[in-house]
Amino acid sequence: MRGLLIGRFQPFHNGHSYVIREVLKENEEIIIGIGSAQISHTLENPFTAGERVMMVSKSLYENGIKKNYYIIPIPDVNNNSLWVPHVRSLTPPFNKVYSGNTLVKRLFGEVGVKVETPPMYNREEYSGTMIRKRILNDEPWVDFVPRAVVDVINEVSGVSRLKDLAKSDRA
Ligand code: ATP
Ligand code: MG
Q1: How many domains does the chain have?
Q2: Any idea what DSSP says for residue 9?
Q3: Cβ of 52 below 6 Å from ligand 1
Q4: Nearest Cα residue to 6 out of 67, 72, 78
């Protein structure tokens, strides 16, 4: 069995890492689809697809997960009816999709793909939105992501990138 987990991973955090371990309990392999792959350098989507690939693969390595996964960047098509075939055109075949996103669940469900919603794990802290907010406000965040993600964010000067993105040119 091969499961598909789709997220934007802006950034990859401990909740994602937990779900991946859960998915690998019931599947030999996992496909990690990096959604909105073409978007970067915005407050909602600060990191590039390549940076997110690094976050995911280094975090999995740190967790001892070394070969039974595929990381596939998936750019948006901006056409919900075409999205599932688009995803399928880019990924290895899969038996089941894991997502908490309502639209993702509906689009796969409508074409008969099995969809499961993984339970949320410490959502107060493990949320991309909350972590981006904390980075911007200099509040503690490094404990909410794998060590490898801290290293990637430092390597690409992610903290100052986010702070710059939050600045307006009107001041
Ligand atoms: P954002 O706030 O930017 O949307 P996010 O934390 O929701 O970030 P996504 O990349 O949107 O992260 O997440 C993709 C999927 O990962 C979600 O649909 C959900 O299934 C799962 N997920 C996210 N956070 C958690 C968590 N804390 N515990 C378990 N699963 C999670
Ligand atoms: Mg989300």
Answers
A1: 1
A2: -
A3: no
A4: 72
Backbone angles phi, psi at 146, to 5 degrees: -60, 150
Q: Is 113 exposed, middle or buried (0-12, 13-18, 19+ CB in 10 A)?
A: middle
CATH number, domain of 64, equals 3.40.50.620
Structural domain contains residue 125: yes
Tens-place pLDDT, residues 37-80: 999 999 999 999 999 999 999 999 999 999 999 999 999 999 99
3-state helix/strand/coil string of 68-130: CEEEEECCCCCCHHHHHHHHHHHCCCCCEEECCCHHHHHHHHHCCCEEECCCCCCCCCCCHHH
Nearest CA to ligand 1 atom 18: 100
- What's the pTM? 0.97
Pocket flag, ligand 1, residue 33 (CB < 6 Å): no
State which residues form the domain around 74.
2-166
Burial class (CB in 10 A: 0-12, 13-18, 19+), 29: middle
Residue 154 lies inside a defined structural domain of this protein? yes
Q: Are 116 and 135 in contact (CB under 8 A)?
A: no
Tell me if 130 CB under 6 Å of ligand 1: no
Domain annotation covers residue 171 = no
Bridge partners of residue 32, in order along the sequence: 5, 71
Does some domain include residue 143? yes
